[in-house]
Amino acid sequence: MGISITFLMAHLVFWYLDSEQLERFVSSASQTSQQLHSNLVTIFTHSNNTCSEQNLITMREDLWRAPLIKDVVHIQDGRIICSASWGNLEAGLVLPKPTIVWPERGLQHWRAVKDPIKGDIQVNMVSDGAVAVLIVPDNAYASIPSNYPNTGFILSTEDNRYVFHASGPMAPENVLTQSGSSWRLLLTQQCNTSSKALECVTAYNAAPGLFGKGLWFISVVGVLSLAISALLHSSILFVIHQKKSLKRALRRAIATQEISVLFQPKVCLTSGRTIGIETLARWHDKHFGHISPDIFVAIAEKNGLMPQLSRLVIEKALYQASSLLKTDSNLHLSINLSMSDMSDPSLLSFINDHCSGHRIPAHQLIFEITENSASGFEGIESSVARFTSCGYQISLDDFGTGYANLSWLSKIKATEIKVDRSFTQMIGDQDPYNRNTLSAIFQLLKDLNISTVFEGIETQEQAEYILRHIPHATGQGWLFAKAMPIQEVARFINTPNSSIQHNADAAR
Fold first, then answer.
1. DSSP label at 105?
2. What stretch of H or E contains 50?
3. Would the CA dihedral through 402, 406, 408, 413 be positive or negative?
4. Residue 405 dihedral angles phi and psi, to the nearest 5°
5. 370, 335 in Cβ contact below 8 A?
6. In the β-sheet with 122-128, what is the strand arrangement from edge to edge?
7. Which of 279, 280, 283, 289 lies closest to 252 in space, CA to CA?
8. What is the Cα–Cα distance from 74 to 62, expressed in whole angstroms?
9. Tens of pLDDT along 214-271?
10. What secondary structure does DSSP assign to 334-396, as a single string?
């Protein structure tokens, strides 16, 4: 009986852990699929039926914003006549026969065909009218975790009749014919019904629980049944306790105002003057130590603590920075808000009350919108309008990554964009792809003619490069200053900085 109970408990525990892992796996695969779909919609919308120089430029700009896509081409009479990467192809290249065609949707799909231009690798292709996109599956889905044993995913139509891409130990047809999870197969599915092709991502674990363990492990379970049973019981309690403890600790930290704020200066690269400061939340727990903002913000979002956390950060930031903002009416204070914050009607009243109480003009506040998914995108325009109508400024954070792109700019009418640090780190890189990417994004920023902040500036070379190409840009990073308490910010503003002065001299 003891052995049977131990085996059952062990199987249930590992089955549960595998199911939790599978949910994370399908979310990652689904997010990649949605990002790929968003890229396709943008490309198909922007492109026209010509291979003019202007349209090739548009195709290339779309391509650098879509890291999951290998190339964009135009087709005519079954031939590729031009490409974003290769330009016009005089003779044209013959396309293979598509794997499937959806005439009513205007779509064609090629699965696992040789790259029609270079012929060196296998690609998937999808076309909408005269525009086609080349995708290298190994590259497009590289961000999906590959270290989950016995796990795979399938990208298919909603009716499961056509498979766009599959990865894993099982044949797609053997998975898609299953009605749901069982003891021998874990199965979960997420669908993107906004797609013309109604794409679904199906993730599976072909050997969940003890079925995925080796014979040696099962033997140990049998021999040491009682000890393993006790150990598993203790482990479960420990894991649950740790998760609940961190959540409880965060709830307590918010209630007792243990969350602190630091401020990082934002520097005008031309004049060398500090024109703003960004608020950064920090949490140091006496038991867990320093907790990264990425971790505790995610916990807050998952457990409904964001309203309290955001209000605490805003309240502390306004209180600590109020004297500095009154001293310099040209200085602005930046505070990060999530999409859930923006859609909270009571938060705007909270901000208005505290600004009024501290006598801080609305125009000195910039709210940076951050979002790593497309959820809530439809309502962003009205949410932002409520803030801007009160005089607050809006900044689009992490521009150039994920969903922080041109479509967001058209919705939120931002007064500022913050270029993600990943682009700053490309400066000085001799890789041709990175150099071309930098050239494209700097040209785009010039055309947008909007206030621009570059994050993550760490070297003089980066600052000087940005200054040459965007003379009125703002810089933020360790080259100038790390995040610091408000008292140090005041001293920093009044103390000459050699790096800043060097940039200002270079501008002259």
1. G
2. none
3. positive
4. -135, -165
5. no
6. 87-94, 79-83, 71-76, 131-135, 122-128, 107-114, 100-102
7. 283
8. 14
9. 666 666 666 666 565 556 556 665 555 555 678 889 999 999 999 999 999 999 999 8
10. EEEE-HHHHT-HHHHHHHHHHHHHHT--GGGEEEEE--SSSTTGGGHHHHHHHHHHTT-EEEE
Torsion-angle region of 249 (φ positive above 0: left; ψ -120 to 50: alpha; else: beta): alpha
Nearest to 507 by CA among 480, 474, 472, 481: 472
Exposed/middle/buried for 135, CB within 10 Å: 0-12, 13-18, 19+?
A: buried
Whether the CB-CB separation of 168 and 185 falls below 8 Å is answered with no
Percentage helix, strand, coil for the chain under 3-state DSSP, each rounded to 5: 45, 25, 30
Structure tokens at 383: 């949410």
Residue type, 363: H
pTM of the model: 0.53
Measured CA to CA, the distance from residue 367 to residue 415 in angstroms comes to: 10
Q: How far is CA 70 from CA 7, 85, 137, 146, in A?
A: 48, 9, 10, 21
**CA 440 to CA 22: how far, in whole Å?**
38
pLDDT digits (tens, 9 = 90+) for 345-389: 899 999 999 999 999 999 999 999 875 544 455 677 888 889 999
Q: Which residue from 459, 17, 26 is spatially nearest to 201, judged by alpha carbons?
A: 26
